[in-house]
Amino acid sequence: MNPAPLSQMTSIADIIRTHGARDTGRVAIEFEGQSVSFSAIHKRSSQVANALLESGVEPQRTVAFLDKNTLEYFDIVFGAAKAGAISLGVNWRLSPSEMAFILNDAQTRVLFVGPEFFAAVESIEAELPSDLLIVAFGAHARWPDYHAWMQSQSAVDAGYASHGEDVAFLTYTSGTTGLPKGAMMTNRGFFAAFAALESWRLDSQSVSLVMMPMFHFSGSGWSLLNLGIGARIVLHRDVDPTGVANAIDAFAITNVIMPPILIDAILSVAPPRDLSSLRAICYGGSPINEALLQRAKQGLRSELIQLYGLTETAGGVSQLDHIDHDPANRPELMRSCGKPFAWVELKIVDANSGAEIPTGKPGEIWVRAPQNMVGYWNNSAATSRTITPEGWLRTGDIGQLDEKGYLYLLDRVSDMIVSGAENVYPLEVEAALQKHPAIAQAAVFGVPDDKWGEAVRAAVIRAPGTSATAEEIIHDTRKHLAGYKLPKTIDFVEELPRNATGKVLHRLLREPFWADHGRRIA
């Protein structure tokens, strides 16, 4: 098969078809002492595609990956694309019951799972689809071994041609109803991110570090964006500040994406390592505070670029560029998340009427951009609540634009909490807490946190005659929720603030903790 020119790539499969055929010896990925070429991934992903087809996977069926970062992910994501399937990275931080919901909701046909998560999958196996094929990375008593399963197939590309509007990825985010929702990203939506290459200081000579998990766009999307331009990535299985600093020095890393908390951690362990190769650090999830910015400017030569976006926008829709990180001369911009990209339409509207609001006035942020999700998988009601008939995506964030076009986040329409760049919906946590026999009522809200941006806090009313401690309740709730969703603190109260209809007023619970902050969002 003749590879398409870079400018004509229309599917995820075209990335590896192009570079696998042209750059036969060029290293694509460095991982734990292994250097893997584009051509090797091209070969192995064709074997995966043929194995998927033999296993009965049809186009636009879902293939799931449950493991920390590993080389096999790239065989699978490109193999799934070559078969026209949809890739789903399962958040390994979730509880087994949460994983089961996602795998069932996505109608998953094949699940690839690493040894660290064998026990989790075994505990929910009876709840999963009867036709689900589980493939193991390593020896398992019942599930086929990945390498034997894959290597039995031909390395000749079957040649399935995906279309730009085909769904390429499902990324699940917590739901306001307590149930996760799968945001659908198309091939065309993914390639829209290539317009940001220059803004993010990326080119074919970049060496990008990848340690964010593949269930996040900051892991999978960042990886594939770099591979798409023929750049090399250095892959880490998990986040380790010392390992990151070592890799920057050893591989002369030029580009990386990470949250501010990790920038701080790397600066703390950096000496005597050389970090001068860094061109740019993209960060998101929360703004960078002035003290950390000064440390970064002193300890790094890198440019700092803040990105604002959502799971539903497949990454950044606005950018605060390095030149705008200037607290001495432009202190107001340190509260901004920059300007929308040129290809992004963004407006501030009245959340109820949809009428556009004048510059300088707060309202809900609506975005219309080529990388927006096309909807939520198997959930037309949630899709219609989020995407307007004209294609505007309601972000749920309250913000305002200044006269120069800079965007400022102020609050949220919903009570959603963002802790360590993960979305947490109070209703979901409240439902889990209220399964505990010691809790009669619970209300969950976000409070400021220097480390995570926001921390989850709960106010609960005890059930009569019970005396469970906060620590016991949090420990018992862990079986229902991912760790990052658990309350860090539980306050026992006599009553919860409610309006005339009985609805809990989360904003009144939050307000005392945010009183000294200029905005109600981290």
**Helical/strand content category:** alpha/beta
Specify the CATH class of the largest domain: Alpha Beta
CATH topology of the largest domain: Rossmann fold
Question: What is the number of helical segments per DSSP (H or I, 4+ residues)?
Answer: 15
Basic shape? globular
Oligomer: single chain
Biggest sheet record: 9 strands, mixed
Structural write-up:
With 522 residues, the chain is α/β, with parallel strands linked by helices. It folds into four domains: 6-188, Rossmann fold; 197-342, Rossmann fold; 344-414, Luciferase, Domain 3 (Luciferase, domain 3, Roll), CATH 2.30.38.10; 419-514, ANL, C-terminal domain (GMP Synthetase, Chain A, domain 3, 2-Layer Sandwich), CATH 3.30.300. Helices cover 27% and strands 25% of the residues. Strands 2-1-10-9-11-12-13-14-15 form a nine-stranded mixed sheet, with helices on both faces. A seven-stranded mixed sheet has the order 6-5-3-4-7-8-18, sandwiched between helices. Helix 2 packs across helix 3. The longest helix is centred in the N-terminal third of the chain and has 17 residues, at 38-54. The chain is globular and about 65 Å long. The termini are far apart. The model has no long low-confidence stretch (mean pLDDT 91).
In summary, what is this structure?
The protein is of the alpha/beta class.
Q: What keyword list fits this structure?
A:
single chain; 522 residues; alpha/beta; Rossmann fold; Luciferase, domain 3; 4 domains; nine-stranded mixed beta sheet; 15 helices; 25 strands; 27% helix; 25% strand
